[in-house]
C-alpha cells in the first residue's frame, strides 16, 4: 500500500470551497464516544454523535470517527479535507506495521478515492470545527445505547 498524504503543518483556516470534516473522540466516566461533523466551507452539512463500547481505548473513537466520517462522505463530490487532533491515528495510517483492523479499513477507503486529504490540527485553540466535534463526542458518551462495538483491544489480550 502506498503512503497516505498527511499534512502535519498546523492549519488554522479551513478551505471555503471544499468539504471539511472534523473528528474527535472522548472517553468520559468510563464511556467512549466520537462525533464527526461535515462542513462545506464553514456551513455544517452533517453531524454525528456515536457511542462506542466501554472497553475502547482512546485510539478507537478517534479512528472510528475518521472511518465513519469517510463512510458518511462517500457520496460527496470534490475534495474532502479530514481534520483530526490524533497524531497517533495519523501516524498509524502512515505505518506499514500497523495491525489495527480499523486503520487498514481507513487506508483502503482513502487510497481508493483520491479526493481525501488528512490534516493534523491542534486541539482546544478555538477552531470552530474542533470545538463542535469535542462537544459532540462528549454528548455521545452520555447515550445509554452503544452505536458501535469494536470488541476488546488486542493489547488487552494476554
UniProtKB/TrEMBL annotation:
GO terms for molecular function: nucleic acid binding; RNA-DNA hybrid ribonuclease activity. Pfam families: RNase_H. Residues 15-142 form the RNase H type-1 domain. InterPro entries: RNaseH-like_sf, RNaseH_domain, RNaseH_sf. This is RNase H type-1 domain-containing protein. It comes from Araneus ventricosus (Orbweaver spider).
Amino acid at each position: 500500500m502506498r503512503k497516505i498524504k498527511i499534512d502535519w503543518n498546523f492549519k488554522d483556516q479551513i478551505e471555503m470551497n471544499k468539504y471539511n470534516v472534523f473528528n474527535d473522540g472522548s472517553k468520559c466516566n468510563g464511556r467512549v464516544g466520537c462525533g464527526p461533523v461535515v462542513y462545506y466551507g464553514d456551513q455544517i452539512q452533517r453531524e454525528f454523535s456515536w457511542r462506542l463500547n466501554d472497553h475502547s481505548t482512546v485510539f478507537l473513537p478517534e479512528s472510528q470517527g475518521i472511518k465513519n466520517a469517510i463512510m458518511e462522505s462517500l457520496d460527496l463530490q470534490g475534495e474532502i479535507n479530514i481534520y483530526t487532533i490524533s497524531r497517533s491515528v495519523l501516524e498509524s495510517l502512515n505505518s506499514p506495521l500497523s495491525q489495527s483492523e480499523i486503520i487498514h479499513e481507513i487506508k483502503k477507503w482513502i487510497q481508493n478515492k483520491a479526493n481525501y486529504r488528512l490534516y493534523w490540527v491542534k486541539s482546544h485553540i478555538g477552531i470552530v470545527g474542533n470545538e463542535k466535534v469535542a462537544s459532540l463526542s462528549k454528548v455521545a458518551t452520555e447515550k445509554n445505547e452503544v452505536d458501535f462495538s469494536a470488541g476488546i483491544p488486542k493489547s488487552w489480550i494476554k
